[in-house]
Amino acid sequence: MKVAKVNAGTDLADPAAPAWSSVAAEAVALAPVALAAQPTEYIRVAWANRPYGKTAEAKVAAASDGSKLYVRVEWADDAKPNTEFQDAVGAVLGDGSLATLGDANSPLTLWYWENGRGALNLTAKGPGIFSKAGAGVTGTGANGNGKWAAVLSGPASAAKGKLGVAVWNGSNEERAGLAAVSRAWLALE
Amino acid sequence: MTANGTRQIAWVFDLNKCIGCQTCSVACKVLWTRDEGEKHEWWCSVNTQPGLGTPKNWEQMGGGVEATTGKPKAGHQPARGEFGGGFDFNYYEVFYGGTAGKAHLEPQAPREDRWAMNWDEDQGAGEWPNSYFFYLPRICNHCTNPVCMEACPTGALSKRDDGLVLRDEDVCMGDRFCMEACPYKKIYFNYERHVGQHCIGCFPRIEAGVAPACVRQCPGRAVFVGYLDEEGTPVHDLVKKWKIALPLHAEAGTGPNVFYVPPLSPHRLNDDMSIDYETPRIPREYLESLFGPEVNGALATLSGEMQKVREGGSSDVCKTLIAYKWKELLGPFTVDPADIVQTV
Known about the structure:
The structure holds two protein chains of two kinds. By secondary structure, chain A is mostly beta strands. Helix content of chain A is about 5%, strand content about 40%. Chain A has one domain (about 5-185): Immunoglobulin-like, CATH 2.60.40. In chain A, strands 1, 2, 3, 4, 5, 6, 7, 8, 9, 10, 11, 12 and 13 form a 13-stranded mixed sheet that branches. Chain B has helices at about 25-30, 80-85, 90-95, 145-150, 175-180, 205, 215, 235-240, 285-290, 295-310, 315-320; strands at about 10-15, 45-50, 135-140, 155-160, 165, 190, 195, 225, 245, 260, 265-270, 275-280. The model of chain B has no long low-confidence stretch (mean pLDDT about 95). Classes of the chains: A mainly beta, B alpha+beta. The interface between A and B is medium-sized, with 22 and 25 residues.
């Protein structure tokens, strides 16, 4: 996937910023993180008969102003009310098992944004096996017209690696490893 | 002490002595849950039984483990509204609004949303003159088999060598599987800090030799704390030797370490107001639903011991439950908190 180069100072943090209209977006197919890969027996039992990760597709675009990489993700909002859990999105970076959001031997970086909570910089060592990894990641999201658009940003050094995305549907109580994740890595270039 | 060298701190609440004064709840509240996002949290709560409890209808929310397979059972994550509480009140209107005699203190929330810890206080059950209720204090059960710990994907929960189940809030990601898995629904969610929170057994006090606040502050001498394996102590003897202190909903399979001396009951009154000496006012089936069939033996023992004393005899059970010496309630944690020198 091409990372669009923009001039320093261009507003990319806002998913509705005009600069994004000239950045090509790629449709990315998503699939649920496998139930068998979920890290605890409780989760596997409790979700055995509950569908999750049904967000089938996201539109992904990436741009950099030289100091930061910005990843814009757009996906359908099911428009059901969220109560205890919120919609969320992640940009997955690194090289490892994308389908499981990393593993113990090959942790991935997860730039995570959740509606109402903001952005977190996480290390992912498996589905929901996340830990905080310090500051440096920002995120903004907005929904309307039946869809979410969010932008995650972090150090530009990530622009030379691989990118995946993950989506959590809050109204379905999705969190941790209960996500839809992109089926294949996008090679950033 | 168990084979692997660990011990288990346990509590015994005597439901015949608990007067529902909430001093334990408030002692806990002022000590641990006064920070942001903790307004609705009552790590120690006392509810009228029968009742809907805290959170509302918690006994119908699932969790725990299957008795036959030991597998965890799916549970419901109590929502903010099911815990209720944390209301703002119309203090200004009542105290300064010139509305004396008209306005009264009430939560600033729609009537249909009003619910909180012990909201159904003293409603109980039964019809006059045979209505009945009792109080049930609840804290985290610091279970022997803590399903909350297993359910957590980030490993935020752990069980210490003294049996307390604690959470590392820096590791907790706020996923709330612990809340679903806990059959006692005694884990809260801090919506401001995005972490689960529950009774920590007052571990900083324990480490300093001070009894947990709920125990030390109880004005009714109704709660004991100590190590479950320490023979000759009230906690051990009430649970293991005399078997009159029972776990709540043991069928949940998690091995709770909070035990209850079940409530004795006045006799029922007949329609002509004569006393029905054969029928306890609190239906035995109800107590069995809480404490299992063992409640019958426990109540028989308790009644028998009380009868001994009535007849002029002596009863170690009664002496223990009366708690003539307050410090016996505190187990090995008898240090006065005022004597602790803070070194931070």
